[in-house]
Amino acid sequence: MRRIALLILLLLVCVGLPLFRFLSGRGGVSPAEEALLSRARGLVEEGRGDEAVVLYREAVGAFPLSHRARMGLGILLVARPEWGAGSTPLDDALREEGERELREAAALAPDRPEPALQLAIYLRHKGDPESAAWLERAGAIDPGDPSLRMILALLRFEKWVQRASSLLARPGELPPHSLLEDLAREARDPRGDLGSAESLARDALSSRPGDRTARDFLAGCAYQRAETLFAIAEAMRHWTQVDPAAAQTPQRIAEGYAQAAGAFAEASARGAPAATFHRKWCSALEAAGNVDGALERYAEAVRGEGSDRDELRGRYYGLLLREANRALVSDDRDRARRLYRLCLDYLPPDVPRRGIEHHLDVIREADVREALEMDAYYAESFGPEEAAASLDRALSLAPLDARLLRALCDRLARIDDPARLQEALRAWI
């Protein structure tokens, strides 16, 4: 859970596009300074950060009172110190230099929120409690700043994740059931920490449409909600096994899985990583008894692109095979036939086809036996015309089966239909 929060922090620091937009402001900037900063911004956007650092250092040397130049240099050094040291490994000294530049930028521009905010983000990443004071300072300057809203959203998100992870970290040591229900409510409550975090991020996104940081953050929130709801459903299921007296009804547990599935759908729509959420979404659907929903989800997932397609195909095949076997045992031959045929389409390379084909042969034999029994029944009860019609239907399931064709020829000979009889004889022979 902590790793997720740190990843978002690094994203806020490393991407930094809204902040470089701030650096493009021209108010009080000389043409020479603006030319240097513009070239440096272009290099950053091209991914040539090492060259950008050189230009920002040049700008700081030429314009020592420029908070834009110092802030640009500071952001690059704290986020990617290797850009300031050529091909050498990450260097703490460069990060310290970057922090000094950010502090100097904040001192040079006490009426601008961006330097204070960037310093707060970096100090937060370091675990320095001083970050709170800088965050308050940025908020006092401009409470509606989108970047400020994003860091506030991150803090609320992190607070919620810490609580959720502390309750669910040890599945064998379940918290009181009431806490699980409280956590499930919080996951869905727009007024809670997670809901507030999403609201702040949406506000930031409305101010900066297309902002990748806000979009990724919202996807992370949706994914974390799904993860937590899934874990709660699993914990409730485990609770029923260890303490039946305190058990919730299966319907309540199924609702938990359904809520998790809905949250995974939201995460999917917001661009969360495909591999993990598809697996857990399908697990939630299957555990809630919606096997067809899980099959549909896998079918959609394996048609997509991505390095995890082979893994998803394997899981889809496994679920198809389990359900086909279950249908065969329960004598639901139509479902078993359909699923076994899908198994052949998604057969892993190291699995021989013969096993699936054997199951299809078993179904075919059962279909033929039943068709011959129905043929005899219809012939005796309704006459050869009805018997021939039933055999036609059976041949759609077992085409060119010699036994069915022979029986059909016999019925057609009795009803004097030479054209159909000739066609059936050609197929039989």
Q: Can you characterise this structure?
A:
This protein has helices spanning 2-15, 17-23, 31-45, 49-62, 67-79, 92-108, 113-126, 131-141, 146-168, 177-188, 193-207, 212-242, 250-269, 274-287, 291-302, 309-329, 333-345, 354-381, 384-397, 402-414, 418-428. The chain contains 21 helices and no strands. It is elongated.
Instruction: Determine the mean pLDDT.
Output: 76
CATH class of the domain at 1-141: Mainly Alpha
The name of the CATH architecture of the domain at 1-141 is: Alpha Horseshoe
Our estimate of the beta-strand percent is under 5%
Distance between the termini: 68 Å
Using only C-alpha atoms, the radius of gyration works out to: 33 Å
The largest sheet, given as strand count, sense and whether it forms a barrel, is: none
What is the CATH homologous superfamily assignment of the domain at 1-141?
Tetratricopeptide repeat domain
What pattern of helices and strands is seen along the backbone?
Answer: HHHHHHHHHHHHHHHHHHHHH
Net shape: elongated
The strand count comes to 0
Q: Which runs of at least 5 residues are low in confidence (pLDDT < 50)?
A: 1-27
Question: In DSSP terms, counting alpha (H) and pi (I) runs of 4 or more, how many helices?
Answer: 21
Multimerization state: single chain
CATH topology of the domain at 1-141: Serine Threonine Protein Phosphatase 5, Tetratricopeptide repeat
The structure class reads: mainly alpha
Helical residues, percent: over 70%
